[in-house]
Specification:
The complex is a heterotrimer of chains A (about 600), B (about 140) and C (about 260). With about 600 residues, chain A is an alpha/beta fold. Chain A contains 16 helices and 21 strands. Chain A is globular and about 65 Å long. Chain A starts with a strand and ends with a helix. A two-stranded antiparallel sheet of chain B has the order 1-2. Chain C has about 260 residues and is an alpha+beta fold. In chain C, the strands form 2 sheets. Chain C has a 5-stranded mixed beta sheet with strand order 2-1-5-3-4. A two-stranded antiparallel ribbon of chain C has the order 6-7. In chain C, helix 2 packs parallel to helix 6 and helix 6 crosses helix 9. The chains are: A alpha/beta (about 600), B mainly alpha (about 140), C alpha+beta (about 260). The interface between A and C is large, with 58 and 63 residues.
Chain lengths: ~600, ~140, ~260
């Protein structure tokens, strides 16, 4: 078997992965850095982020206010030391991206322009029209092209982490184009594989977001953290799940029920005003807006459609000129994919799974509890997002913690010896497993698509916006059955060249693991907090649950959950308040 | 990681997929309307050459005296020459129009930081073309 | 109304086939289905060996470009209904690229070309980050913004006959991205890019067919970018005669106009 070796190995080539690669290459240009990605890096899902990236930029704003918004938005589940580091470094990272050529929108005098965003007290969201993620990713990708030490393995799918001596020493990967399976060893591995939205039936996430890195890490022995916190975005287009950015509401869009009534005023989110008010009504946090939708639906005040109930997002009063100038992509998406023009028509929307707050447990430098293994971006849980992520915090998170993980991994790698021989045996065994279980097996009877659909329905029913013990236990049972049926999965495709069916099967395996972890964490957290809402435990319980869930997988596949206290530095837990006057809260509650 | 040298290998060997690359036919431009228009635009340069050649012959006939010039104009009146000139004229029209339509793309004009709409850039070309043609027509008609 | 549509899909398995052949599949015709939804339907329900790339399904990742009835298209943005009930729609891999399998083309050559034009911000001796951002007015941003919208879907390569005739031609997307940086007031690299761009395989390879611009799903206008750069390069060449000493700085000046 062919073995290649590098000092640092990135798994995933999105925002966090590319930022980490550049950071590692800049720490020490002599290091050999490799980016392994199952798609060409510019296809990574960072590309789909629309609204913007938060970083304090103007004199009327402060780091403390950004930290407080993030912590209260996360329902006090954020580690506050991580948040403090994050808000401090976010503006520098965004500035660094500007220096690399990112086309940020500008003020007339040439300075960076910022916009308002849901849950943020002040205007601090940097944006590049409504294609911020696209511009960030392409800027990063094009910048990596100038770094000689960065080797790319484009369209390589990682199937396993190689572990020896309690240290992660590389990966086994399939070169998709040829079907060749090979080991790539490294002194440190950084997972940047993104989230797992495809576990759910209705998501804004791209087809490639299957929780690969989460499952890889957990199988290798690293714990996943806070997996019960799954963010629903309140405004997705039905059928496609395409996201209509929060910016549409920040610019003044209204959420209307079937009677044309701005229903958010009934859910403690402030009083309706003709123009947008920060942290109020349509600019409230995502979890609260998604929950309001479910309640509105229970009252029978949503609009039924072929693809389930919807409410309406109304942009008509903003006028064609403003929509074209500030929200051109929103209009393009509606016209191209939904055949609706927001200038003259209401946009049907419903909550869709958007983001995974949980992930591979890391410290403030992206290091997991396993030596040699790092994680950054959506795959990781640092945690700065707590129980609910604020819009426009995830893009800077990729940059800040991508860079931190890159630096930390580079330092770690400098003191490590090359991997030893036992990982080669592991790699050979992995090749045999893949061949026997998938490529050479002709007896499998289960279809990938069938199992995938059942998994998606199960988790939506058991661990959707609202959860309870009975439905969670039912879902747990069903996913266990699906795991067993997955053993009997059969492929139509037994070829080597570009076998996308093999990749889909492996992704399904990862997703089933992730689904189990989500359900397990949700079952044990007997409280309601942020995105995790239990109808049988509707109150937040700081006595028992001001702690992160850690879920581990033992070698027999069984899961265990334990807890890690949340780090509080300056902001003791308080009540999340939205609506008028709520933005004054930050100064009142800080304890030095 | 695959090198270009792996293109079009003779046979498939495991892990070295053989890429299929279709060779472009000599008649690639016939299959598609847009390509055909492009090739016609390129061919229109022959019409320019035709008119230049014609002018040179006209000049030679003029310098050789009235008899020679008479024979030249007689030739021009033959159906074949009329047909050829008509075709050449159509090609020149095609050349001018496609070229004027492409002009705004090659030279975007900005006024006060805003890009001027394409038709506004193309329009002056047409206006100038018509004006010059009208002037030439006036010159010709006046002397006759 | 059980509406149907037939997809004729190019199949090529390198282990088995010497050249591609077509296979027909009948799929339901639904109002909101794009060509990609039909491919997914076939892969999930009928034939798991059908091979193609896709990811975002919202026209931004650039993975799912294919020839649909002979036209380069993003299949996630091409409604089946636009071809009518009981129609036959022919789906092939993007033209002029080597085919790896079925509808998947090899992209490695494009990435080599992209890297060649240095599509990154060149600005030596930058002040420290603490000095703040480079200033750029909305008007300066507007000068290059259109060319920065390229999603690398390579539809323009499949539209350009020069790409088909000359494998060395750098091609529309890469040239447009080079021009995107040349026109950025923060960039000082146009002189460095000149040798690759003002070359028979660069802008001078372009015969202005204009198809790249017509098929671009993001309205990048690569043809425009190339013609504008031709003008810059030509003027630069003329200047080198008139002002021999000023020649070296000339491209930089034009970039900062």
């Amino acid at each position: 078997m062919e073995i290649r070796s590098h000092d640092i190995l990135l798994v995933g080539g999105g925002g966090a992965g590319l930022r980490a690669a550049i950071a590692a290459a800049e720490v020490n240009p002599k290091l050999s850095v490799a980016v392994v990605s199952k798609v060409y890096p510019m296809r990574s899902h960072t590309v789909s982020a629309e609204g913007g990236a938060a970083g304090v930029a103007k004199p009327d704003d402060s780091l403390d206010e950004h930290a407080y918004d993030t912590i209260s938005g996360g329902d006090w589940m954020c580690d506050q030391d991580a948040v403090e580091a994050f808000v401090k470094e976010a503006p520098l990272e965004l500035l660094q991206l500007e220096r690399w050529g990112c086309p940020w929108n500008r003020e007339p005098d040439g300075h960076i322009a910022v916009r308002a965003f849901g849950g943020m007290t002040n205007k601090r969201t940097w944006f590049a029209a409504d294609k911020t993620g696209f511009h960030m990713l392409h800027t990063l990708f094009q910048t990596t092209l100038k770094y000689q030490p960065i080797t790319r393995y484009d369209e390589y799918f990682v199937t396993k982490l190689l572990v020896d001596d309690g240290r992660v020493q590389g990966v086994v990967a399939i070169e998709i184009m040829s079907g060749k399976i090979q080991a790539i060893t490294a002194k440190a591995v950084i997972l940047c594989t993104g989230g797992c939205g495809r576990v759910f039936p209705f998501t804004t996430n791209a087809n490639i977001k299957n929780g690969d890195g989460m499952a890889l890490a957990q199988r290798a022995g690293a714990p996943l953290k806070d997996m019960e916190f799954v963010q629903y975005h309140p405004t997705g287009l039905p059928f496609t799940g395409i996201l209509i950015t929060e910016a549409a509401r920040a610019e003044g869009g209204y959420m209307l029920n079937k009677d044309g009534y701005r229903y958010l005023q009934d859910y403690d989110l402030g009083k309706p005003q003709p123009t947008p008010v920060l942290r109020s009504m349509e600019l409230g946090p995502r979890d609260r807006l998604s929950q309001a939708f479910v309640k509105e639906d229970q009252k029978g005040r949503t609009i039924p459609t072929e693809y389930g109930p919807v409410v309406h997002l109304d942009l008509r009063h903003l006028g064609e000129k403003l929509i074209n100038a500030k929200l051109p992509f929103v209009r393009e998406l509606c016209v191209k994919y939904q055949n609706i023009d927001p200038v003259t028509e209401l946009i049907p929307v419903r909550p869709v799974v958007h983001y995974m707050m949980g992930g591979v447990s890391t410290d403030i430098n992206g290091a997991t509890p396993m030596a040699g293994l790092y994680a950054a971006g959506e795959v990781a849980c640092v945690s700065i997002n707590g129980a609910n992520r604020l819009g426009s915090n995830s893009l800077p998170e990729c940059l800040v913690f991508g860079a931190r993980a890159g630096h930390a991994a580079a330092e770690f790698a400098a003191s490590q010896k090359a991997p030893n021989g036992s990982v080669w045996t592991q790699a050979t065994n992995e090749v045999l497993r893949l061949e026997q279980q998938y490529l050479h097996k002709t007896s499998g009877r289960e279809r990938i698509a069938t199992l995938r659909e059942e998994m998606q329905k199960t988790i939506e029913a058991g661990a959707g916006i609202y959860r309870e013990e009975a439905s969670l236990k039912q879902a747990r049972q069903k996913i266990q059955e699906l795991q067993e049926r997955f053993e009997n999965v059969g492929l139509d495709d037994h070829g080597r060249t570009f076998n996308t069916e093999l990749i889909s099967a492996l992704e399904l395996g990862f997703m089933l693991d992730v689904a189990q972890s989500i359900i397990e964490c949700a079952l044990y957290r007997a409280e309601s907090r942020g995105a995790h809402q239990r109808t049988d435990f509707p109150k937040r319980d700081d006595q028992k649950f001001l702690a992160h869930s850690l879920v581990r997988r033992s070698s027999d596949g069984s899961l265990s959950v334990d807890y890690l206290p949340v780090k509080i530095t300056h902001w003791p837990p308080g009540e999340r308040k939205y609506g008028e006057g709520s933005h004054k809260a930050s100064k009142q509650t800080k304890v030095s | 990681m695959t090198e270009m040298s792996e293109l079009n290998q003779a046979a498939h060997t495991e892990f070295h997929p053989r890429w299929y690359r279709k060779r472009l036919s000599t008649w690639w431009w016939l299959g598609e309307w847009h390509y055909l228009v492009f090739i016609l635009r390129e061919l229109s340069s022959l019409s320019v050459a035709w008119f230049v050649g014609l002018t040179l012959f006209q000049l030679r006939a003029f310098m050789r005296g009235p008899d020679s010039y008479g024979r030249f104009t007689d030739t021009l009146q033959s159906p074949i020459m009329i047909a050829l000139n008509l075709i050449a004229f159509c090609f020149i029209m095609l050349h001018a129009i496609t070229w004027f339509n492409l002009a705004p793309r090659a030279m975007p004009v900005r006024v006060g930081g805003k890009r001027v709409p394409e038709f506004l850039v193309a329009a002056p070309n047409y206006v100038l073309w018509i004006a010059v043609s009208a002037f030439v027509a006036w010159l010709l008609l006046r002397t006759s | 109304m059980a509406d149907k549509i037939v997809l004729e899909i190019a199949r090529y398995a390198p282990e088995r086939d010497d050249k591609p052949s077509f296979q027909s599949f009948e799929v339901p015709l639904r109002k909101e289905w794009v060509v990609l939804d039909a491919l997914n339907y076939i892969k999930d329900k009928v034939d798991g060996t059908l091979t193609y790339r896709w990811s975002c399904r919202m026209g931004i990742c650039g993975s799912c470009g294919m020839m649909v009835n002979g036209e380069p298209k993003l299949t996630c943005a091409t409604f089946l209904t636009s071809y009518g009930n009981n129609a036959t729609v022919r789906v092939e891999p993007l033209r002029y690229f080597p085919v790896i399998r079925d509808l998947v083309t090899a992209l490695s050559d494009f990435l080599v070309k992209l890297q060649k034009v240095k599509p990154w911000l060149i600005h030596p001796n930058q002040p420290p980050l603490s000095a703040g951002e480079f200033l750029q007015t909305p008007e300066q941003l507007d000068l290059y913004k259109q060319f920065s919208m390229c999603i690398n879907c390579t539809l323009c390569y499949a539209a350009c006959p020069v790409v088909g005739l000359d494998q060395e031609f750098v091609g529309p997307a890469a040239l447009a991205l080079a021009q995107r940086y040349n026109l950025d007031n923060r960039d000082q690299g146009s002189a460095e890019r000149l040798a690759t761009l003002a070359h028979p395989d660069g802008i001078w390879g372009c015969t202005f067919v204009g198809e790249c611009t017509r098929v671009c799903p993001k309205h990048v206008d690569p043809a425009g970018a190339i013609q504008q750069y031709k003008l810059t390069a030509a003027l630069d060449w003329v200047k080198s005669f008139i002002l021999p000493r000023g020649h070296k700085d000339a491209p930089q000046e034009t970039a900062h106009d």
